[in-house]
Each structure stands twice: as structure tokens, then as C-alpha cells.
Amino acid sequence: MKKWFIAMAAAMFMSGCSTLEVQVDYDDEHDFSALSSFAVVYKNQNDGRDFSRDRISRLLTAYMKNKGYENVEKSAADFYVIMHLDVQQKSQVETNYETIGIRPVPYMYLGAIRPIGTYPGTYVSGAMVMEPDVRVTTTTNEYEEGRLILEVFNVKENRVVWQGIARDELSKDYTQQEKSEYLSKVISELFKDFPLKK
After folding, report:
1. Where are the beta strands (DSSP E) in 1-127?
2. What is the pLDDT of residues 63-93, one digit of tens each?
3. Partners of residue 167 on adjacent β-strands
């Protein structure tokens, strides 16, 4: 029976501006040394993200070549790196509880309480405090979450032998250079344990 290892990692990139969640699954019994040539495979969807797909494809190609693998046409590849990019609108609801004082009342604590006057339940200890009131405020934060799935598909065996999933909240404040640097770090995190080709 095949054994699958799941590695979970959380990393902070871009000087704390982003929180990246990475999950990697792979077949540890697969002979990765038999793989030597690859092609990046993906489908543009005309959804406004095709430029990002093309950018990721170029970065993936450069990364795998640096690992020692040869970039070839799809028909000649030992394995495909199949890319899926999905962006969804998300909402995050945050509830805050704030305690404020609304009117002065006697401060009461065990051992210092004594009844006064003729009204039952009236106590004083010599100090006054403000009676607390809790106010609840709720805010909703709308944001985009990007999910990148990269699969290594062994062509000869006709099956996926490696899968990496990266999930993160997208930032609109990145420059073009920062986007490329960030995506390079995402790819490196996903494939950091992928075998080097000797």
C-alpha cells in the first residue's frame, strides 16, 4: 500500500504583509530519479487571471530548470507540472467586545461590604467605581483568497505523484517586482523537497 506524507507549513513573506499556508502530498515510493524532462501544463480561462497564469508558468519553468530538469514540448515530457489557479471572494467577520463605564456605583468586594440605610441591597466600601456595560461591535472584511495547486503528473504511469497547494489572501498593494518575488517564494516553498536532478 502506498504511503502518503502530508507536510504542513505556515510561512510569513513580504515583510509580514502576507500569511501563506502550504500543503504538500507526495508518493514516497515513487522513483523520481526516472524523471528528467517536463512541461508546464495549464489552461487559460479568460477570467482576468491569465496573465498571472503565464507569469507562474514562466517562474515554474525557470525553477524546475534550476533543479536540473529539462524543459521540453508536452509530447516529449516525462512529467507534467499541471497548474490550477483559483481566486475566490471571502468575508471575515470580526466581533469586538468593549467594556465601558456608564455610571458610578460603590466598589464592593468580600470582607469590605456593609449595608447602609434602610434599603436592602445597598452596599458601600468607601470607594466608587463606574458600573460596567459591554458593547458589541461587528465588522466584516471583504478580501480575495488565491489558491494555487501544482501537480506532478507522471506521463508513463498516467498518475499524479506529487501535489502542492498554496493558499493566501491576495494583496493589491504589491508592485510588479514584488508579485514576481512573492510567486517565486511560493513555488520554492511548494517544491523545496522535490528531488534535484543529478
Report:
1. 4-13, 18-27, 37-41, 70-71, 79-106, 114-115, 123-124
2. 999 999 999 999 999 999 999 988 777 666 7
3. 21, 147
